[in-house]
Amino acid sequence: MLALAVGTAVSLTAVGAAGDSTRDKRVVGHMPPLPEERLAEPIEFKCGFVVHEWRGSPRGEREVAHVEELCALALERLDPYLARHGLRRQHDRDFTYDVAFLPDSREYRALNDINFRFYYRRTTYVITGYTSFTNHFLYMTGDQNDLEFDVTLLHEQFHAMSDFYGIWTSLDGDQDERVAADEQLAVGFTRYLGYGE
Q1: CA 61 to CA 81: how far, in whole Å?
Q2: How many structural domains is the chain composed of?
Q3: Residue 197 domain-assigned (yes or no)
Q4: Whole-angstrom Cα distance, residue 183 to residue 122?
Q5: pLDDT tens digits, 111-120
Q6: What residue numbers bound the domain in which 48 lies?
Q7: Own/partner long-range contacts of 58-64 (Cβ < 8 Å, ≥24 apart)
Q8: pLDDT tens digits along 56-95
Q9: DSSP assignment string, 155-185
């Protein structure tokens, strides 16, 4: 799932609980991790992911290795996939992208919190992943037991690489058309890697 909120003013409005403006303040529309949500030390992957937040799922050696394996595969296969579509990277800098692995619930500050954290996200239905071109951040469930984890990570990583390398901005059409084309490319990329849609 890709969404873009270019030109949307992000307000860091705090909202208190009913009848209490000093307790339980909740931030509206601020997608990146808050200071208290950030890992003490970000996890820097060889493939370029920098994980700043990992909540709601295990993050042991096995989980980290699995993310590294998928991320490296996507990065390795990007250029041949782009060439099939007559596309190319707009620069050759080493890929780097910020990532947050979140619980996939609708709880406050989780992946499907559309009332606060993802207030400006265009989608209101439950998702397993989301890449913000505005914040240059990939958000997704960290639950590797979820049957959609691998395909979601690869799909969202395509959007992240498309953002980082200027691919989506090189596509024809207006902003909405480019976003739709990038979504189709991401779906095709997961199929190309053998992971389905």
Answers
A1: 30
A2: 1
A3: no
A4: 14
A5: 999 999 999 8
A6: 2-192
A7: 58/144, 59/101, 59/142, 63/142, 63/144
A8: 998 899 999 999 999 999 999 999 999 999 999 999 999 9
A9: HHHHHHHHHHTTTGGGSSSSHHHHHHHHHHH
* Residue 169 maps to a domain: yes
pTM: 0.86
Backbone angles phi, psi at 92, to 5 degrees: -115, 20
Residue 137: strand pairing partners: 98, 132
46 within 8 A of 54, measured Cβ to Cβ: no
Report if residue 9 sits inside a domain: yes
Please give the torsion angle defined by the CA atoms of residues 59, 60, 63 and 67, in that order, rounded to the nearest 10 degrees. 70
Instruction: Please give the full DSSP string across 55-124, using - where no structure is assigned.
Output: -SS--SHHHHHHHHHHHHHHHHHHHHHHHHTT---S--PPP-EEEEEE--SSSTTSTT-TTTTTTT-S--
